[in-house]
Amino acid sequence: MRSLLRFVAVGATVALGSAPIHLSAQVPNAADVAEVRTQFGEDLDTLYTKFTALAKAIPADKYAWRPGPGVRSVGEVFMHVASEFYVYSPMAFGATPSPVVQRGQEAIKKFEAMSTKDDVLKHLDASHDYAKQALAGVDPSKLTGKTKLFGGNYNVIETTLGMTDDMHEHLGQLIAYARMNGIKPPWSK
Asked: The whole model's pTM is what?
């Protein structure tokens, strides 16, 4: 995974118009960080739009559906996404996670268990708003080094790619859940 992040990160810096960087030797400058933040914010907006459209398209009685024992339900996956907007999206840029989701596995499970359609729609909106506000408040010049996250040292390009990768994975998961229940994603019509 780490080598994949490095490969993609180098490609991302080239796509952003910067000279390629070797992530093990260098970290992005403040201008690159600002551009990565802009691109990350745009991706979060796209994800939010799709998550919200899918959440609205799935009937409330399907939010408890799960493909098998021990697997998150539809509603729990949406709430997991909301927790990532509240906590991990800001952390990818060194911003303060929202106090709405308490730290620790048990607290996150408790948050995800609030998985009705009303809970999901409320928290998708609020968590996306929080993530955007938190990212906007980050000074790019303070993010030119590496930071400790999940037991490793990463620069902001690596943390951003890791976060968007995970969010896109959950979008795919929810699309599969929807289709297994006969629901076509609204943007596919």
From this structure: 0.83
At the top level of CATH, the class of 2-182 is mainly alpha
CB atoms within 10 A of CB 156: 26
pLDDT of amino acid 15: 44
Tokens of 151: 């037991």
Do residues 162 and 28 touch, judged by C-beta distance below 8 A? no
- As a whole number of angstroms, the distance between CA 47 and CA 45 comes to 5
* CB-based contacts of 163, cutoff 8 Å, min separation 6: 40, 84, 88, 89, 92
- Where residue 11 falls among pLDDT bands split at 50, 70, 90? very low
What are residue 99's phi and psi, to 5 degrees? Answer: -75, -5
11, 66, 134, 154 from 23: Cα distances, Å? 11, 40, 25, 9
pLDDT digits (tens, 9 = 90+) for 104-154: 889 999 999 999 999 999 999 999 999 999 999 988 887 787 877 778 888
Q: Where are the domains of the chain?
A: 2-182
